[in-house]
Design brief:
Blueprint (H helix, E strand, L loop, with lengths): L2 E6 L4 H11 L5 E8 L3 H10 L4 E4 L2 H10 L6 E3 L5 H4 L6 E4 L7 H7 L5 E4 L2 H18 L2 E4 L2 H10 L7 E8 L17 H4 L9 H9 L1 H14 L6 E5 L5 E7 L4 E5 L5 H8 L14 H4 L5 E2 L21 H17 L5 H12 L2 H4 L9 H17 L3
Parallel strand pairs: 1-2, 1-5, 2-3, 3-4, 5-6, 6-7, 8-9
Antiparallel strand pairs: 8-10, 9-12, 10-11
Length: 387
């Protein structure tokens, strides 16, 4: 019997990678739904290629164009996620949540009750809305696999083990393009320099987050949420080759680490074929890299945003939404060349530490609307500061 699947954000890099995997094994899968925001041309092409009957395109103009293009095709076109029960009357076997940004939270949350297993690559859903996601997973008995390479590695290393057996978790960071750049040269960093990631091919926004190491701040929050581990038991290590993705030191004296090439197809593939034992064709072990892992503590004077971890509340709160929003706003200012790299770092610290935002550290997220409303509020506040 074919495995029924859904891809939220099918035109994203993760969505496309998943489709490339499925393309080689079409006989075992039936795609029930694909979604995109505005990339309607690619979405239509994917739907035709994989014979998908249902698509969601959320951008109003793109939705109108899609309706016109597909008027003589047997494709059901929707503009939002309110029709999920109609599209998916029974639970599917697997959902990949690959929508980028905070816009991925609502569809991720809504689709949990329509699937047996959800693989989540949407960072914002886990950082901002984990209490909501966790509650839905439990209520609907839906299994969950994190797709980020670091979290998939931790998940793989501790599967079937109690998290209270863990003494320390280390997640690795390549250090981006500035790992070996002298601190006194940071003032000369250009946008083009920050977009030259040495290992991963990603979108511009996440590439900048990697250059500042803000992505690792969010990944530590994700690890704390997913695995219920205190912040004090999670550390970041720089690792230029991106070959080791996670290290876990257990209380019984054992330490385990997981390695694979810096290729997101590997965690994506393993989330799709979880517990099937299906082989993945990849390179042999890279012993040259293994003999020179070069793992080091983060130089906080070069990457000051990691210090934000010292000011985060112990429990999930709305402050994580504040942090995501402030970072998003300022990274796009940097991408528009309105602020420089050093100011980007300074403003993230300064704005996130505003007194009126600190109160959200004591408030637990209770709904997606609450998170979205706070995001709008933070945007307006930053704009009022003239930034």
């Amino acid at each position: 019997m074919k495995k029924k699947i859904v891809i939220l954000g099918s035109t994203s890099s993760i969505g496309r990678s998943l489709l490339n995997i499925i393309k080689k094994d079409k006989k075992n899968f039936k795609i029930e739904l694909l979604t995109a925001n505005s990339n309607y041309k690619n979405l239509i092409s994917q739907a035709i290629k994989f014979k998908v009957k249902n698509i969601i395109i959320t951008d109003p103009d793109s939705f109108k164009k899609t309706k016109i293009i597909c008027r003589n095709k047997k494709i059901n076109i929707f503009q939002n996620f309110e029709s999920l029960k109609r599209i998916l009357p029974k639970k599917v076997d697997y959902v990949m949540s690959a929508i980028s940004g905070i816009g991925g939270l609502l569809p991720t949350y809504k689709i949990i009750n329509r699937t047996k297993l959800i693989a989540i690559a949407n960072k914002e859903a886990i950082v901002c809305g984990w209490p909501l996601i966790k509650s839905e997973l439990k209520k609907n008995k839906t299994s969950f696999i994190p797709v980020d390479s670091e979290h998939f590695s931790i998940f793989s290393l501790i599967e079937n083990k109690e998290t209270n057996d863990i003494e320390k978790i280390y997640i690795t960071a390549s250090g981006g393009p500035f790992l070996n750049l002298a601190k006194n040269k940071f003032k000369k960093i250009k946008l083009s320099d920050a977009l030259k990631h040495p290992n991963w091919r990603m979108g511009k926004k996440i590439t900048i987050d990697s250059a500042t190491l803000m992505n690792k701040v969010f990944e530590v929050i994700e690890a704390k949420n997913i695995f219920d581990i205190d912040y004090k038991n999670i550390s970041i290590l720089t690792h230029p080759k991106s070959y080791v993705h996670a290290i876990i030191k257990f209380k019984n004296g054992l330490t385990k680490f997981l390695i694979h090439e810096p290729d997101m197809k590997i965690p994506i593939y393993n989330s799709l074929y979880h517990k099937t034992g299906k082989s993945f064709k990849n390179n042999t072990l890279n012993f040259n890299t293994l003999n020179n892992l070069n793992l080091k503590k983060v130089e906080e004077n070069k990457f000051p945003l990691v210090k934000l971890l010292n000011k985060l509340p112990k429990n999930s709160s709305l402050f994580e939404t504040v942090l995501i929003t402030v970072n998003d706003y300022l990274v796009y200012k940097f991408l528009d060349k309105k602020i420089n790299f050093q100011k980007l770092n300074k403003l993230i610290h300064k704005i996130s530490n505003l007194k009126e935002f600190q109160k959200f550290k004591k408030i637990k997220p209770k709904s997606v609307d609450q998170i979205n409303n706070l995001r709008n509020y933070v945007h307006l506040k930053i704009e009022s500061l003239g930034i």
